[in-house]
Amino acid sequence: MRVTGIGHAGMRFETAGGSVLCDPWTNPTFFASWVPFPDNTQLDWKALGDVDYLYVSHLHRDHFDADNLRDNVSKDARVLLPDYPTDELENELRELGFRHFVRTETGVPQELDGGLRFMITSLKGPGDGPIGDSALSLDDGTAHIVNQNDAHPLDIPKLLEFGAYDAHFTQFSGAIWWPMVYDLPQAAKREFARRKRIGQEDRAMRYIREVGAPHVFPTAGPPCFLDDELFRWNGLGYEGVEGESIFTDQWEFLGRMRELGHEGGHLLLPGTTAEIGHGTVEDLTHPIPDAEVETIFLDKERYLRDFAERARPAIDAQKAGWSAPQPDILRQLKEWIEPLMKRADHMCDGIGGPVRMDLHGMPGDTPGIDEDGTLSLAFDFPAREIRVWNGEQARYRWGVPATLVQTNVDTGEVDWSNSLFLSVRFTATRVGQYNEYLYTFFKCLSEERMDYVENWYDAQNDDGRDIELDGWKVQARCPHLSADLSKFGSVDGEVLTCSLHNWKFNLRTGRCLTSAGHEIRAEKLGD
Protein backbone atom coordinates (compact mmCIF):
# COMPACT_ATOMS: atom_id res chain seq x y z
CA MET A 1 0.00 0.00 0.00
CA ARG A 2 1.48 3.33 -1.06
CA VAL A 3 0.83 6.50 0.91
CA THR A 4 1.37 10.08 -0.26
CA GLY A 5 1.27 12.87 2.31
CA ILE A 6 -0.81 15.87 1.24
CA GLY A 7 -0.56 18.00 4.39
CA HIS A 8 -2.08 18.18 7.87
CA ALA A 9 -4.45 15.17 8.25
CA GLY A 10 -4.51 14.63 4.49
CA MET A 11 -3.11 11.63 2.65
CA ARG A 12 -3.76 9.54 -0.44
CA PHE A 13 -3.53 5.75 -0.39
CA GLU A 14 -2.88 3.65 -3.49
CA THR A 15 -4.20 0.20 -2.59
CA ALA A 16 -4.74 -3.08 -4.40
CA GLY A 17 -8.44 -2.23 -4.38
CA GLY A 18 -8.34 1.40 -5.52
CA SER A 19 -7.15 4.85 -4.48
CA VAL A 20 -8.46 6.65 -1.37
CA LEU A 21 -8.11 10.40 -0.74
CA CYS A 22 -8.42 11.58 2.87
CA ASP A 23 -9.14 15.10 4.18
CA PRO A 24 -7.59 17.23 1.39
CA TRP A 25 -7.07 20.69 2.96
CA THR A 26 -5.00 23.46 1.38
CA ASN A 27 -6.83 26.83 1.68
CA PRO A 28 -6.57 29.19 4.70
CA THR A 29 -9.51 28.67 7.04
CA PHE A 30 -11.13 29.67 10.35
CA PHE A 31 -11.35 33.31 9.27
CA ALA A 32 -8.04 33.03 7.39
CA SER A 33 -6.12 32.19 10.54
CA TRP A 34 -5.08 28.55 9.98
CA VAL A 35 -2.87 27.44 7.09
CA PRO A 36 -1.48 23.91 6.57
CA PHE A 37 2.10 23.44 7.83
CA PRO A 38 4.32 22.78 5.95
CA ASP A 39 3.19 24.45 2.71
CA ASN A 40 1.18 22.11 0.47
CA THR A 41 0.10 24.57 -2.23
CA GLN A 42 2.73 23.20 -4.65
CA LEU A 43 1.02 19.81 -4.90
CA ASP A 44 -0.81 18.75 -8.07
CA TRP A 45 -4.28 18.80 -6.55
CA LYS A 46 -6.04 17.84 -9.78
CA ALA A 47 -3.96 14.66 -9.99
CA LEU A 48 -4.43 13.92 -6.28
CA GLY A 49 -8.18 14.37 -6.66
CA ASP A 50 -8.50 11.82 -9.47
CA VAL A 51 -9.39 8.96 -7.10
CA ASP A 52 -11.74 6.04 -6.66
CA TYR A 53 -12.77 6.90 -3.09
CA LEU A 54 -13.00 10.04 -0.94
CA TYR A 55 -13.01 10.06 2.85
CA VAL A 56 -13.71 13.26 4.78
CA SER A 57 -13.41 12.53 8.49
CA HIS A 58 -15.61 15.40 9.74
CA LEU A 59 -16.76 18.93 8.99
CA HIS A 60 -14.01 20.94 10.64
CA ARG A 61 -12.60 23.08 7.86
CA ASP A 62 -9.03 21.90 8.30
CA HIS A 63 -10.45 18.56 7.06
CA PHE A 64 -13.41 19.68 4.94
CA ASP A 65 -12.00 22.20 2.42
CA ALA A 66 -15.04 23.01 0.29
CA ASP A 67 -13.13 24.93 -2.40
CA ASN A 68 -10.54 22.18 -2.86
CA LEU A 69 -13.18 19.45 -2.87
CA ARG A 70 -15.33 21.31 -5.42
CA ASP A 71 -12.50 22.35 -7.74
CA ASN A 72 -10.12 19.41 -7.70
CA VAL A 73 -11.68 16.14 -6.52
CA SER A 74 -13.43 13.87 -9.06
CA LYS A 75 -17.17 13.79 -8.60
CA ASP A 76 -17.08 10.17 -9.76
CA ALA A 77 -15.29 9.28 -6.52
CA ARG A 78 -17.34 7.17 -4.12
CA VAL A 79 -17.58 8.86 -0.73
CA LEU A 80 -16.92 6.67 2.32
CA LEU A 81 -19.49 8.32 4.59
CA PRO A 82 -19.14 8.21 8.39
CA ASP A 83 -22.21 7.18 10.39
CA TYR A 84 -23.20 10.50 11.97
CA PRO A 85 -26.37 11.57 13.80
CA THR A 86 -27.11 14.32 11.28
CA ASP A 87 -26.90 14.45 7.47
CA GLU A 88 -24.83 17.64 7.39
CA LEU A 89 -21.64 16.10 5.98
CA GLU A 90 -23.52 14.28 3.21
CA ASN A 91 -25.55 17.38 2.39
CA GLU A 92 -22.45 19.58 2.18
CA LEU A 93 -20.75 17.07 -0.13
CA ARG A 94 -23.85 16.81 -2.33
CA GLU A 95 -23.88 20.59 -2.70
CA LEU A 96 -20.30 20.33 -4.01
CA GLY A 97 -21.39 17.82 -6.65
CA PHE A 98 -20.62 14.43 -5.11
CA ARG A 99 -23.24 11.82 -5.98
CA HIS A 100 -21.95 8.40 -4.95
CA PHE A 101 -21.98 7.48 -1.27
CA VAL A 102 -21.01 4.31 0.57
CA ARG A 103 -22.99 4.29 3.82
CA THR A 104 -21.43 2.76 6.90
CA GLU A 105 -22.19 1.59 10.40
CA THR A 106 -19.67 2.66 12.99
CA GLY A 107 -17.16 -0.04 13.85
CA VAL A 108 -18.46 -2.50 11.23
CA PRO A 109 -15.99 -3.63 8.50
CA GLN A 110 -17.18 -3.51 4.89
CA GLU A 111 -15.69 -4.65 1.60
CA LEU A 112 -15.55 -2.57 -1.56
CA ASP A 113 -15.23 -3.61 -5.19
CA GLY A 114 -11.77 -4.96 -5.76
CA GLY A 115 -11.53 -6.51 -2.31
CA LEU A 116 -10.57 -3.40 -0.32
CA ARG A 117 -11.79 -3.78 3.28
CA PHE A 118 -12.48 -0.65 5.28
CA MET A 119 -14.06 0.40 8.55
CA ILE A 120 -15.05 3.83 9.83
CA THR A 121 -15.17 4.38 13.57
CA SER A 122 -17.53 7.31 14.12
CA LEU A 123 -17.72 9.35 17.32
CA LYS A 124 -20.93 11.21 18.04
CA GLY A 125 -20.55 13.18 21.27
CA PRO A 126 -20.80 16.98 21.43
CA GLY A 127 -17.07 17.19 22.19
CA ASP A 128 -16.18 15.29 19.00
CA GLY A 129 -15.76 17.92 16.31
CA PRO A 130 -18.93 19.55 14.93
CA ILE A 131 -21.34 16.75 15.83
CA GLY A 132 -18.93 14.00 14.90
CA ASP A 133 -15.40 12.84 14.22
CA SER A 134 -14.11 9.58 12.82
CA ALA A 135 -11.20 7.26 12.06
CA LEU A 136 -10.63 5.14 8.94
CA SER A 137 -9.18 1.63 8.81
CA LEU A 138 -8.02 0.09 5.51
CA ASP A 139 -6.89 -3.43 4.52
CA ASP A 140 -6.02 -4.32 0.92
CA GLY A 141 -4.29 -7.62 1.67
CA THR A 142 -0.82 -6.05 1.60
CA ALA A 143 -1.13 -3.86 4.71
CA HIS A 144 -3.47 -2.77 7.50
CA ILE A 145 -3.51 0.96 8.35
CA VAL A 146 -5.59 3.16 10.64
CA ASN A 147 -5.99 6.86 9.93
CA GLN A 148 -7.05 8.19 13.34
CA ASN A 149 -6.63 11.92 12.51
CA ASP A 150 -8.47 13.99 15.19
CA ALA A 151 -10.69 11.19 16.50
CA HIS A 152 -10.41 9.88 20.07
CA PRO A 153 -11.97 6.40 19.92
CA LEU A 154 -13.14 5.12 23.28
CA ASP A 155 -13.17 1.40 22.44
CA ILE A 156 -9.66 0.46 21.33
CA PRO A 157 -10.33 -3.32 21.40
CA LYS A 158 -13.16 -2.75 18.91
CA LEU A 159 -10.79 -0.78 16.69
CA LEU A 160 -8.26 -3.63 16.86
CA GLU A 161 -10.82 -6.24 15.80
CA PHE A 162 -10.25 -4.99 12.25
CA GLY A 163 -6.77 -6.58 12.40
CA ALA A 164 -3.24 -5.89 13.59
CA TYR A 165 -2.20 -2.54 12.13
CA ASP A 166 1.06 -2.05 10.26
CA ALA A 167 0.88 1.77 10.28
CA HIS A 168 -0.91 4.30 12.46
CA PHE A 169 -1.61 7.88 11.33
CA THR A 170 -2.55 9.97 14.38
CA GLN A 171 -3.08 13.48 15.68
CA PHE A 172 -0.42 14.64 18.11
CA SER A 173 -0.98 18.40 18.31
CA GLY A 174 -4.60 19.55 18.58
CA ALA A 175 -6.44 22.77 19.40
CA ILE A 176 -9.10 22.22 22.03
CA TRP A 177 -8.65 25.63 23.65
CA TRP A 178 -6.30 28.62 23.50
CA PRO A 179 -4.68 29.72 26.80
CA MET A 180 -3.11 32.71 25.03
CA VAL A 181 -6.44 34.42 24.29
CA TYR A 182 -7.40 34.52 27.99
CA ASP A 183 -6.91 37.47 30.31
CA LEU A 184 -4.24 35.74 32.38
CA PRO A 185 -0.73 36.59 33.56
CA GLN A 186 1.87 35.57 31.02
CA ALA A 187 3.36 33.04 33.42
CA ALA A 188 -0.03 31.37 33.75
CA LYS A 189 -0.50 31.30 29.97
CA ARG A 190 2.88 29.66 29.55
CA GLU A 191 2.09 27.08 32.24
CA PHE A 192 -1.31 26.25 30.75
CA ALA A 193 0.27 25.93 27.29
CA ARG A 194 3.02 23.68 28.68
CA ARG A 195 0.44 21.43 30.33
CA LYS A 196 -1.59 21.29 27.13
CA ARG A 197 1.43 20.32 25.03
CA ILE A 198 2.34 17.59 27.51
CA GLY A 199 -1.26 16.39 27.72
CA GLN A 200 -1.53 16.14 23.93
CA GLU A 201 1.75 14.24 23.69
CA ASP A 202 0.72 11.86 26.48
CA ARG A 203 -2.64 11.17 24.83
CA ALA A 204 -1.02 10.53 21.46
CA MET A 205 1.53 8.17 23.02
CA ARG A 206 -1.23 6.33 24.87
CA TYR A 207 -3.06 5.71 21.59
CA ILE A 208 0.19 4.69 19.91
CA ARG A 209 0.82 2.12 22.64
CA GLU A 210 -2.79 0.87 22.63
CA VAL A 211 -2.98 0.50 18.83
CA GLY A 212 0.45 -1.15 18.79
CA ALA A 213 1.38 -0.51 15.16
CA PRO A 214 5.15 -0.77 14.55
CA HIS A 215 5.09 2.33 12.32
CA VAL A 216 3.59 5.69 13.25
CA PHE A 217 3.04 8.80 11.11
CA PRO A 218 2.24 11.92 13.22
CA THR A 219 -0.43 13.86 11.31
CA ALA A 220 -3.29 16.34 11.85
CA GLY A 221 -1.26 19.21 13.18
CA PRO A 222 -0.03 21.72 13.80
CA PRO A 223 -1.33 24.51 11.55
CA CYS A 224 0.62 27.72 11.09
CA PHE A 225 -0.51 31.32 11.47
CA LEU A 226 0.57 33.52 8.57
CA ASP A 227 -1.61 36.63 8.96
CA ASP A 228 0.56 39.42 10.36
CA GLU A 229 -1.58 39.93 13.46
CA LEU A 230 -1.48 36.21 14.35
CA PHE A 231 2.10 35.30 13.38
CA ARG A 232 3.31 35.38 16.99
CA TRP A 233 1.18 32.32 17.82
CA ASN A 234 3.57 30.13 15.86
CA GLY A 235 5.56 29.82 19.09
CA LEU A 236 8.82 31.30 17.85
CA GLY A 237 10.04 32.58 21.20
CA TYR A 238 9.19 36.27 20.93
CA GLU A 239 9.54 38.27 24.12
CA GLY A 240 6.36 37.93 26.17
CA VAL A 241 5.00 35.14 23.99
CA GLU A 242 7.68 32.48 24.44
CA GLY A 243 6.15 29.22 25.54
CA GLU A 244 2.50 30.26 24.94
CA SER A 245 2.06 28.17 21.80
CA ILE A 246 -0.04 25.06 22.43
CA PHE A 247 1.44 23.24 19.44
CA THR A 248 4.20 20.66 19.15
CA ASP A 249 5.42 20.23 15.57
CA GLN A 250 6.16 16.99 13.74
CA TRP A 251 9.92 17.20 14.26
CA GLU A 252 9.55 17.75 17.99
CA PHE A 253 7.03 14.94 18.44
CA LEU A 254 9.17 12.44 16.53
CA GLY A 255 12.02 13.34 18.87
CA ARG A 256 9.72 12.78 21.84
CA MET A 257 8.77 9.36 20.48
CA ARG A 258 12.43 8.40 20.25
CA GLU A 259 13.04 9.61 23.80
CA LEU A 260 10.28 7.25 24.94
CA GLY A 261 11.83 4.32 23.08
CA HIS A 262 9.58 4.20 19.99
CA GLU A 263 11.80 4.08 16.90
CA GLY A 264 9.00 3.58 14.38
CA GLY A 265 8.06 7.23 13.78
CA HIS A 266 8.10 8.67 10.25
CA LEU A 267 7.85 12.25 8.97
CA LEU A 268 5.07 12.68 6.41
CA LEU A 269 5.46 15.96 4.54
CA PRO A 270 3.24 17.18 1.70
CA GLY A 271 4.54 15.12 -1.22
CA THR A 272 6.28 12.46 0.88
CA THR A 273 5.67 8.92 -0.38
CA ALA A 274 6.22 5.53 1.28
CA GLU A 275 5.41 1.88 0.69
CA ILE A 276 3.65 0.16 3.62
CA GLY A 277 3.73 -3.61 3.95
CA HIS A 278 3.09 -6.11 6.70
CA GLY A 279 5.24 -4.64 9.46
CA THR A 280 7.36 -2.60 7.07
CA VAL A 281 7.72 0.93 5.72
CA GLU A 282 10.06 1.15 2.73
CA ASP A 283 11.15 3.68 0.11
CA LEU A 284 10.10 6.69 2.21
CA THR A 285 10.96 9.63 -0.03
CA HIS A 286 10.54 13.34 0.69
CA PRO A 287 9.88 15.79 -2.16
CA ILE A 288 12.94 17.86 -1.15
CA PRO A 289 16.48 16.98 0.04
CA ASP A 290 16.91 16.07 3.71
CA ALA A 291 18.89 19.26 4.40
CA GLU A 292 15.94 21.35 3.22
CA VAL A 293 13.58 19.25 5.33
CA GLU A 294 15.57 20.16 8.44
CA THR A 295 15.40 23.89 7.69
CA ILE A 296 11.58 23.77 7.76
CA PHE A 297 11.71 22.86 11.46
CA LEU A 298 15.10 24.15 12.64
CA ASP A 299 14.90 27.53 10.88
CA LYS A 300 11.14 27.76 11.22
CA GLU A 301 10.77 31.53 11.44
CA ARG A 302 12.51 32.11 8.13
CA TYR A 303 10.48 29.34 6.51
CA LEU A 304 7.20 30.78 7.83
CA ARG A 305 8.08 34.37 6.88
CA ASP A 306 8.67 33.26 3.29
CA PHE A 307 5.49 31.17 3.35
CA ALA A 308 3.53 34.14 4.71
CA GLU A 309 4.50 36.25 1.71
CA ARG A 310 3.28 33.54 -0.65
CA ALA A 311 0.02 33.13 1.29
CA ARG A 312 -0.73 36.85 1.67
CA PRO A 313 -2.98 37.15 -1.45
CA ALA A 314 -5.16 34.20 -0.37
CA ILE A 315 -5.46 35.54 3.19
CA ASP A 316 -6.25 39.07 2.02
CA ALA A 317 -8.89 37.76 -0.40
CA GLN A 318 -10.66 35.91 2.40
CA LYS A 319 -10.57 38.92 4.71
CA ALA A 320 -12.04 41.09 1.95
CA GLY A 321 -15.10 38.83 1.94
CA TRP A 322 -16.01 39.37 5.58
CA SER A 323 -19.27 41.20 6.28
CA ALA A 324 -19.48 44.78 7.49
CA PRO A 325 -21.25 44.86 10.90
CA GLN A 326 -24.82 46.14 10.81
CA PRO A 327 -26.44 48.43 13.43
CA ASP A 328 -29.28 45.92 13.94
CA ILE A 329 -27.01 42.96 14.76
CA LEU A 330 -28.70 42.53 18.15
CA ARG A 331 -32.06 42.01 16.46
CA GLN A 332 -30.54 39.48 14.07
CA LEU A 333 -28.95 37.51 16.92
CA LYS A 334 -32.15 37.55 18.95
CA GLU A 335 -34.25 36.22 16.08
CA TRP A 336 -31.79 33.42 15.39
CA ILE A 337 -30.48 32.30 18.76
CA GLU A 338 -33.21 33.00 21.34
CA PRO A 339 -35.50 30.24 19.98
CA LEU A 340 -32.55 27.84 20.28
CA MET A 341 -31.97 28.86 23.89
CA LYS A 342 -35.52 27.80 24.63
CA ARG A 343 -34.72 24.30 23.29
CA ALA A 344 -31.49 23.96 25.30
CA ASP A 345 -32.39 23.37 28.93
CA HIS A 346 -29.33 21.20 29.68
CA MET A 347 -26.90 23.70 28.23
CA CYS A 348 -28.58 26.85 29.51
CA ASP A 349 -28.76 25.40 33.03
CA GLY A 350 -25.17 24.21 32.75
CA ILE A 351 -23.96 27.67 31.74
CA GLY A 352 -25.99 29.08 34.61
CA GLY A 353 -25.66 32.81 34.08
CA PRO A 354 -25.22 35.65 31.61
CA VAL A 355 -22.28 35.61 29.20
CA ARG A 356 -20.91 38.93 28.00
CA MET A 357 -19.86 39.42 24.38
CA ASP A 358 -18.16 42.70 23.43
CA LEU A 359 -18.49 43.38 19.69
CA HIS A 360 -15.67 45.70 18.65
CA GLY A 361 -15.83 47.95 15.59
CA MET A 362 -19.58 48.56 15.36
CA PRO A 363 -20.85 51.44 13.14
CA GLY A 364 -21.47 54.75 14.85
CA ASP A 365 -25.27 54.63 14.53
CA THR A 366 -25.59 51.37 16.48
CA PRO A 367 -27.86 51.74 19.55
CA GLY A 368 -26.05 51.10 22.82
CA ILE A 369 -22.42 51.34 21.66
CA ASP A 370 -19.79 52.99 23.84
CA GLU A 371 -17.36 55.73 22.82
CA ASP A 372 -14.92 53.12 21.46
CA GLY A 373 -17.49 51.66 19.07
CA THR A 374 -18.09 48.54 21.15
CA LEU A 375 -21.52 46.98 21.63
CA SER A 376 -21.62 44.85 24.79
CA LEU A 377 -24.26 42.14 24.72
CA ALA A 378 -25.47 39.76 27.41
CA PHE A 379 -26.38 36.23 26.34
CA ASP A 380 -28.66 35.67 29.34
CA PHE A 381 -28.95 31.89 29.43
CA PRO A 382 -31.16 31.63 32.56
CA ALA A 383 -33.65 34.09 30.98
CA ARG A 384 -33.19 32.57 27.48
CA GLU A 385 -32.64 35.99 25.90
CA ILE A 386 -29.98 38.21 24.32
CA ARG A 387 -29.92 41.89 25.28
CA VAL A 388 -27.63 44.85 25.80
CA TRP A 389 -25.36 44.19 28.76
CA ASN A 390 -26.55 46.21 31.76
CA GLY A 391 -23.40 46.11 33.86
CA GLU A 392 -24.13 42.91 35.81
CA GLN A 393 -21.43 40.39 36.73
CA ALA A 394 -20.67 37.83 34.05
CA ARG A 395 -18.35 34.89 34.74
CA TYR A 396 -17.60 34.49 31.04
CA ARG A 397 -16.69 37.28 28.64
CA TRP A 398 -15.54 37.41 25.02
CA GLY A 399 -14.12 40.27 23.00
CA VAL A 400 -14.77 39.72 19.28
CA PRO A 401 -14.41 41.81 16.10
CA ALA A 402 -17.99 42.59 15.12
CA THR A 403 -17.24 41.79 11.48
CA LEU A 404 -16.66 38.13 12.38
CA VAL A 405 -19.97 37.79 14.21
CA GLN A 406 -21.79 39.57 11.37
CA THR A 407 -20.17 37.18 8.88
CA ASN A 408 -21.40 34.21 10.93
CA VAL A 409 -24.88 35.72 10.98
CA ASP A 410 -24.90 36.39 7.24
CA THR A 411 -23.66 32.92 6.35
CA GLY A 412 -25.85 31.14 8.90
CA GLU A 413 -22.81 29.50 10.51
CA VAL A 414 -24.27 26.88 12.85
CA ASP A 415 -20.92 26.03 14.47
CA TRP A 416 -19.01 29.01 15.80
CA SER A 417 -16.28 26.68 17.01
CA ASN A 418 -15.75 25.84 13.33
CA SER A 419 -15.25 29.51 12.49
CA LEU A 420 -14.74 32.01 15.31
CA PHE A 421 -13.41 29.98 18.26
CA LEU A 422 -10.75 28.14 16.26
CA SER A 423 -9.61 31.37 14.63
CA VAL A 424 -7.76 32.86 17.65
CA ARG A 425 -9.27 36.21 16.59
CA PHE A 426 -10.92 36.86 19.96
CA THR A 427 -10.11 37.40 23.63
CA ALA A 428 -11.67 35.68 26.62
CA THR A 429 -12.06 36.12 30.35
CA ARG A 430 -13.55 33.70 32.82
CA VAL A 431 -13.97 33.44 36.55
CA GLY A 432 -13.61 29.85 37.70
CA GLN A 433 -13.67 26.70 35.62
CA TYR A 434 -13.93 26.12 31.92
CA ASN A 435 -17.57 25.57 30.98
CA GLU A 436 -18.05 22.85 28.36
CA TYR A 437 -21.73 23.71 27.93
CA LEU A 438 -20.94 27.24 26.79
CA TYR A 439 -18.74 26.27 23.87
CA THR A 440 -20.97 23.32 23.01
CA PHE A 441 -23.97 25.67 22.77
CA PHE A 442 -22.20 27.74 20.12
CA LYS A 443 -21.46 24.57 18.13
CA CYS A 444 -25.18 23.85 17.88
CA LEU A 445 -26.91 26.87 16.37
CA SER A 446 -29.55 24.90 14.47
CA GLU A 447 -32.64 23.09 15.69
CA GLU A 448 -31.29 19.73 14.50
CA ARG A 449 -27.99 20.11 16.32
CA MET A 450 -29.52 21.56 19.46
CA ASP A 451 -32.09 18.79 19.79
CA TYR A 452 -29.49 16.09 19.16
CA VAL A 453 -27.09 17.38 21.82
CA GLU A 454 -29.83 17.94 24.38
CA ASN A 455 -30.98 14.36 23.86
CA TRP A 456 -27.36 13.18 24.07
CA TYR A 457 -26.99 14.81 27.48
CA ASP A 458 -30.23 13.12 28.55
CA ALA A 459 -28.75 9.74 27.64
CA GLN A 460 -25.45 10.19 29.49
CA ASN A 461 -26.68 8.87 32.78
CA ASP A 462 -24.20 6.88 34.86
CA ASP A 463 -24.72 3.15 34.20
CA GLY A 464 -23.83 2.27 37.81
CA ARG A 465 -20.74 0.15 37.05
CA ASP A 466 -17.60 0.65 39.14
CA ILE A 467 -13.92 -0.19 38.75
CA GLU A 468 -11.01 -0.24 41.18
CA LEU A 469 -8.26 2.22 40.35
CA ASP A 470 -5.21 2.73 42.57
CA GLY A 471 -7.04 2.16 45.84
CA TRP A 472 -10.30 3.86 44.82
CA LYS A 473 -13.66 2.50 43.72
CA VAL A 474 -14.66 4.77 40.82
CA GLN A 475 -17.49 4.77 38.31
CA ALA A 476 -16.35 2.96 35.16
CA ARG A 477 -17.05 5.78 32.71
CA CYS A 478 -15.76 9.35 32.74
CA PRO A 479 -18.58 11.84 33.45
CA HIS A 480 -17.33 14.00 30.58
CA LEU A 481 -17.66 11.86 27.42
CA SER A 482 -17.96 8.32 28.84
CA ALA A 483 -14.33 7.26 28.29
CA ASP A 484 -13.39 3.91 29.84
CA LEU A 485 -11.51 4.94 32.98
CA SER A 486 -9.86 1.53 33.28
CA LYS A 487 -7.90 2.51 30.16
CA PHE A 488 -7.77 6.31 30.28
CA GLY A 489 -7.87 6.98 34.04
CA SER A 490 -4.90 7.51 36.35
CA VAL A 491 -4.81 8.57 40.01
CA ASP A 492 -2.33 10.88 41.70
CA GLY A 493 -3.20 11.23 45.37
CA GLU A 494 -6.88 12.17 45.40
CA VAL A 495 -7.01 13.47 41.83
CA LEU A 496 -8.12 11.30 38.92
CA THR A 497 -7.10 12.37 35.41
CA CYS A 498 -8.91 11.08 32.34
CA SER A 499 -6.21 11.34 29.68
CA LEU A 500 -8.66 11.27 26.76
CA HIS A 501 -9.29 15.01 27.18
CA ASN A 502 -7.12 15.60 30.30
CA TRP A 503 -10.12 16.23 32.58
CA LYS A 504 -9.44 16.04 36.32
CA PHE A 505 -11.65 15.06 39.28
CA ASN A 506 -11.22 15.27 43.05
CA LEU A 507 -12.06 11.74 44.14
CA ARG A 508 -12.64 12.67 47.79
CA THR A 509 -15.34 15.24 46.98
CA GLY A 510 -16.44 14.01 43.52
CA ARG A 511 -15.92 17.52 42.15
CA CYS A 512 -14.72 18.04 38.58
CA LEU A 513 -11.64 20.29 38.60
CA THR A 514 -11.87 21.05 34.88
CA SER A 515 -15.45 22.16 34.26
CA ALA A 516 -18.67 22.70 36.14
CA GLY A 517 -21.44 20.10 36.12
CA HIS A 518 -19.56 16.79 35.80
CA GLU A 519 -19.25 15.18 39.23
CA ILE A 520 -17.76 11.71 39.62
CA ARG A 521 -18.82 8.89 41.92
CA ALA A 522 -15.89 7.53 43.93
CA GLU A 523 -14.90 6.25 47.35
CA LYS A 524 -11.58 5.33 48.95
CA LEU A 525 -11.22 1.58 49.46
CA GLY A 526 -10.54 0.68 53.06
CA ASP A 527 -12.03 3.88 54.53
Automatic annotation (TrEMBL):
Residue intervals of the Rieske domain: 474-527
Keyword rRNA processing found: no
Superkingdom assignment: Bacteria
Keyword Membrane assigned: no
One Pfam family hit: Lactamase_B_3
Swiss-Prot/TrEMBL keywords: 2Fe-2S, Iron, Iron-sulfur, Metal-binding
InterPro entries: RibonucZ/Hydroxyglut_hydro, Rieske_2Fe-2S, Rieske_2Fe-2S_sf, SCP2_Rv3818
Gene Ontology cellular component list: cytoplasm
One GO molecular-function entry: metal ion binding
Protein name, per record: UDP-MurNAc hydroxylase
Organism from which the protein derives: Actinomycetospora succinea
